[in-house]
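Here is my example:
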Amino acid sequence: MKLRLGMIGGGTGAFIGAVHRLAAALDGQYELVAGAFSSNPDTSRASGQLLGLAPDRVYESYQELIEQEKARPENERVQVISIVTPNHLHFAPAKLALESGFDVVLDKPMTFSLAEAKELAAVVATTGRRLCLTHTYTGYPMVKAARQLVAAGTLGTIRKVYVEYPQGWLSKFEEGGANKQAAWRTDPARSGVAGAMGDIGTHAFNLLEYVSGLQVTKLCADINTVVEGRQLDDDGAVLLRLSGHASGVLVATQVAAGEENNVRIRVYGEKGGVEWQQVDANTLQVKMLDRPVEIWRTGGAYAGSYAAHNTRTPAGHPEGYLEAFANLYRNFALTLQADLAGQPAPPEALDYPSIEEGLRGMAFIENVIASGHSIAKWTEFTV
């Protein structure tokens, strides 16, 4: 049975809204039935019409959507609300949706500030509702294979982690023109205290903690604003101390001219290491100390249960960003459907980013910016 989905944001001309809708539709687990797609009522109505929604289920504000949907009979109202707005419009609709009895899918970073993240965590705890945070890269099968290898102790005690996310799309001052994505992502009033570190640094941070199974405990950041006239950081590097006496390096930049989105992670333990990068997402390199490098491929029977659960096509057929994104939506749906049936969800279905990852992501943003402004060499990572 499909879950009834409502969407806040993501109207005509928005990038990430279409990605969310494609991801939600891929497995047939959701049906989009309602939306408040823009703060502009005309845009919201036009977007709903293009999507084939009933006119009375297309709303002028998120408040109206939540209020009107809550008033509908239980077998008609939306069950899940997907929020795909800019950062400053994450907290209020998520809080209201959770308090009104809806489960939530929320784009990252989770909120505008750490204070909001803490309040939202308290709301999740109080209401008992579920929240899925769309850290896309955790949805790739071979990222899950890497995590399972590390968790099984195959690499031994983890010693070193490198993660990098280079982009080049903000190498010029794009926010002064018609580029809507550049305009809001570089605006402190809409993005928050961080630019590149909030936009892509949080992805790198989340990937590091997800695959390694470790948590950042201290950091030392060098944060830069390279392009003249830009208000937020567009480049940075961070030295990390991790739980279990491991260390790491995180690099996030949006001024690496010519680069696209090749997020990459390498994890090394006492017995060997693993390496994954999005440009070749179907491949995981496994590098053991005492044997030749192994090339693991998506669809291989050896890749583990979590990779298998999130693999969609026969081996040799490429899977990518939309499938990884869809894995988050599907796993969330499987979990909610298990809840509705009064049954425990399998561990593979419960494997999606949630409130804890969102809280730590917001803590990363505020800690890394504070460290970048500090003369201290190392600062404690606090949540």
In short: Residues 5 and 311 are 24 Å apart (CA to CA).
